[in-house]
Design a protein that fits this description.
The complex is a heterodimer of chains A (133) and B (551).
Chain A: E1 8-12, H1 21-32, E2 36-39, H2 46-55, E3 60-65, H3 70-83, E4 90-95, H4 99-107, E5 112-114, H5 120-130
Chain B: H1 5-8, E1 24-25, E2 31-32, H2 46-50, H3 66-69, E3 73-74, E4 77-78, H4 83-95, E5 101-103, H5 107-110, H6 134-140, E6 150-153, H7 159-172, E7 181-184, H8 189-195, H9 202-219, E8 223-224, E9 226-229, H10 231-235, H11 242-259, H12 265-268, E10 272-276, H13 285-306, H14 312-315, E11 319-322, H15 335-349, E12 354-356, H16 369-384, H17 399-421, H18 425-430, H19 433-451, H20 480-494, H21 497-512, H22 518-526, H23 531-542
Parallel strand pairs in B: 3-12, 4-5, 5-6, 6-7, 7-8, 9-10, 10-11, 11-12
Antiparallel strand pairs in B: 1-2
The chains are: A alpha/beta (133), B alpha/beta (551).
Amino acid sequence: MPEKRVIRVLIAKPGLDGHDKGAKIVAKSLKDAGMEVIYTGIRQTADAIVRTAIQESVDAIGLSILSGTHLSICEELMDKMEKEKLQDTLVLVGGIIPKKDVSRLKKMGIAEVFRPGSTLSEISQFIQGHVSR
Amino acid sequence: MAADESTKKSGKRGKGSEDVTGLKTTNTGIKVKLFYDSADVPGFKYDTSLGNPGNYPYTRGIYPSMYRGRLWTMRQYAGFSTSENTNSRFKFLLDQGQTGLSLALDLPTQLGLDSDDPLAKDDVGKLGVAIDSLKDMEEMFEGIPLDKISTSFTINSTASIILAMYVVTAEKQGGNPRELRGTIQNDIIKEYIARGTYIFPPGPSIRLIGDTIEYCIKDVPNFNSVSVSGTHICECGATPVQGVAYPFLTAIAYIQEVLRRGYGIDEIAPLLSFHLIAGGVQFNFFQDIAKLRAARRLWAKILKEKFSSQSGKSMQLKFSTGGMGGGMTEQQPLNNITRISFYALAAALAGSQSMNLPCFDEAYAIPTDEAIRTSLRIQQIMAYEIGIPDVVDPLGGSYYIEALTDFFEKEIASEMERIEGMGGILRCVEDGTIQKQLSNQAYEVQKKFETGELTKVGVNRFRIDEEDRELEVFEVDPKTLSRQITRLGQVKAERDHARVTNALNILKRAAIEKRNLMPSILDAVRAYATVGEMVNTLKEVYGEAQHLSVF
């Protein structure tokens, strides 16, 4: 029986906002769920996130955005992902995201949006269920 | 807190075999007894443990008449998009009876990026007002006499520049800088720990804070030149004890920076104020009150015993309470009004000097007018309707509160010792020790909410189906970016270029020679140099801080 490959996740904090408690908590819980997790640190550009995703050949990217800049950041990031042919990499967004923006984010190709009140197990189960191994 | 034999043996039982009369672990992890009596406050002596309000060790409050003499300052955080928008919001708040202004600045301003910087494009005017040059500051306070109000700025890395702009604006209005009242946050250490708006490495950053304190001592004596914050680190996972211990250690680091320059403790300490938490994720009503009383007593002792302060003004711990958005929930948002009321009551019973309460829509939006007004009304109901200000420290003398106060004083002091034993606060921040500890703690607390060990009403208990409700969400004007860039272009076109270049050169030389930067920042501000130009000039000398990616 082939052994299951370990899922690799990049937790990224794009934009200028430096509140990264949520990003770190999610990173820790995914690690506890058996995944390999890389955290970018704060103030990352879309270019830097895509570059790290390629270098680390991750299966999923989790963006933490609290500052209301999710639409423009995600649009830019998803464009760059497409140019780099990373469409198979799962992209998730967590943070302060109004309900009405969820469908717009999903249209851009964001796989799931985890709004305030989401649980850590919801996030790890979603990744485990959607990364093809 | 210590177990006591007398409560262990009574043996009343609740459901199952749980002993409901023994020690109970509270939501903060602190264990409490069923009730408290005189045996729980063995060393209690009125004069040395409390003293009258306004007397050492200031446990009951720093002023003799407290809220009868002067109510806490009611401030709600405001400021968004452009200076004109913020100007009308300020006028609205002053009309509503608010007594001080609390200004939010956008992230590019906090990070020293002008609005036309490519890195700033997503954030201009988003979480606060954009300030590029003196022009923006002048327009923001148009028609608001600065010597008649008190303004609090949430600004850290670029605090020296924002303070200079505020002073120059007041001068241009015909006001006297010596009369200016307000606060700049100007606390860089908690930025490395929790909030992330640092620019330069710690060494020059702390020197710059020393420069602003020194400048305020000499020229703007009624301005709080630093507001050392425990709030942000609590929101980031610090325990209530650490939420006082770390700001105290931080304040001591700033004090030592200025003592080195030859100033006396009683010139420095009165300019410091604190921003501490009553509320938030780890809120416990009685513990938060006791913790703040303990903080007041401990700070007075530190100043008197370690720094040989001779002045009450130095020993009086001035603090505002605020922030606490981390305690707000997106689910059933009206419950947040209830939470905010309890936070506010705790702050008032603890003798806070100023409150900026969170708003009930804070978990999902920049607060709307209605939400801001509601938080202001909570303060006004306490102040004018239900008798809260009438008696100072009304819980003083309660066995429980005094036992908790003793407990917190000891715990805060021992946490301070622990960090000093590990090389001090700066070392523990530079190597990421504190950041890692806080994220571990935050993760543990989050897990407790997920398993139901801790309760969050409306989130992990007492949920309702809310899918159909539409929430009012404040939207930032999408034209903000282009308007701000246009205005910046105009300023740059109209100013005297040679004067700007010269001012920036002088600033650079002062930085290289490690002189106080305030005089050259003031001159650069008067020449309409931008925040970005000044910060870039300093980056050439200081370099930039590294981002840690530990978790």
